[in-house]
Write a structure and sequence with these properties.
321 residues; 8-stranded mixed beta sheet; alpha+beta
Length: 321
């Protein structure tokens, strides 16, 4: 049996500049980190000559690969081997899907890692991220940008630069004390909302020309955020995280509604910086508290559920064979 695990992520700066329509013309930049929540896959050979998939609370069986309805599973199998023999696999994630924490990207990476391990292959994490991004961006026609699979596969607090699908990665070089302080400043809250990313990203891509000034600002903000983190300037880093949310709300797409306005206003009133992760209205609220406003934020967001948050360093792994 193969067991694989890939961390989820929180985007901090530059998100949406990794979309194909933008990154292929202008190049994109993101700063983000994986976290200790993850996607998991278990994989075994088939006993009865059928594909069996357990995912999202449902069990699916099929005689042929093409008949599988789970898009990510079907296309991951096809990417590894167009005539892939039947297997049994289960997919589960530590959070609900469509939440804004990069679940589909992490799931796709985990599937590919498990399937390639079953064949005795040990691809590097960059290759896993590129293959997963190809599935999401090209095969599934823009279900995400290039960011999520690439950061989730590699793991860590990373700056990623995109030249279309080509990705260059480097760790954000923070001193130990600065990293500890930054991690301690972060809070995560769940609202329970779920939404599909693709409709929002399709709308943004179809109105790209009018969105370009804001996307350029988002890209520049990622540079500024990296500089603030490296310098250990927590207040400036928090400002960059909050400014990303303000910029995102100016874009065409599903990024703002009364819920978003209400939650972000409550957080800002405490002096902290809010951001709803992902290319839509997320089911999570990320908060950076540069001056220790944690208790005030908890009181302000008392109707939401706080989720313990730790940044992670490791990327996708095969845990057991």
């Amino acid at each position: 049996m193969i067991v694989a695990r890939t961390p989820l992520r929180i985007p901090l700066g530059g998100g949406l500049t990794d979309l194909k329509a933008y990154a292929s013309r202008f190049g994109g930049t993101t700063v983000s980190s994986t976290i200790d929540l993850a996607a998991h896959v278990t994989l075994l050979p088939s006993l009865d000559g059928r594909f069996e998939v357990v995912a999202e609370g449902r069990v699916e069986t099929a005689e042929r690969l093409d008949d599988l309805r789970h898009d990510l599973v079907r296309e991951a199998l096809r990417s590894v081997d167009a005539a892939h023999p039947p297997v049994r696999l289960a997919v589960w994630v530590d959070v609900a899907g469509q939440s804004g924490l990069g679940t589909s990207g992490a799931v796709t990476v985990t599937l590919l890692h498990a399937l390639r391990a079953l064949r005795g292959e040990a691809p590097d994490r960059g290759a896993l991220g590129a293959e997963a991004a190809h599935i999401e961006v090209e095969v599934l026609q823009g279900a995400s940008g290039y960011h999520d699979p690439n950061v989730c596969a590699r793991g860590g607090l990373l700056r990623l630069d995109y030249d279309g699908p080509r990705v260059a990665a480097r760790e954000v070089a923070m001193a130990g004390a600065a990293r500890t302080a930054f991690e301690a400043s972060l809070m995560l809250f769940a609202s329970g909302r779920q939404a599909r990313t693709k409709p929002s990203l399709d709308l943004l891509s179809s109105h790209l020309e009018e969105a370009l000034p804001v996307l350029h600002d988002l890209k520049a903000l990622a540079d500024e955020l990296e500089r603030a983190l490296v310098a250990g300037d927590l207040r400036r880093a928090a400002w960059c995280i909050g400014e990303k949310q303000r910029l995102k709300e100016r874009l065409p797409g599903n990024f703002v509604d009364d819920h978003v306005r209400d939650v972000t206003a409550r957080v800002r009133a405490t002096g902290a910086a809010p951001q709803l992760p992902g290319g839509k209205i997320s089911g999570y609220v990320l908060v950076c508290c540069p001056d220790g406003q944690h208790d005030a934020v908890r009181a302000a967001l008392g109707d939401l559920r706080e989720v313990p948050l730790r940044l992670s360093r490791g990327g996708s792994t095969v845990l057991r064979t």
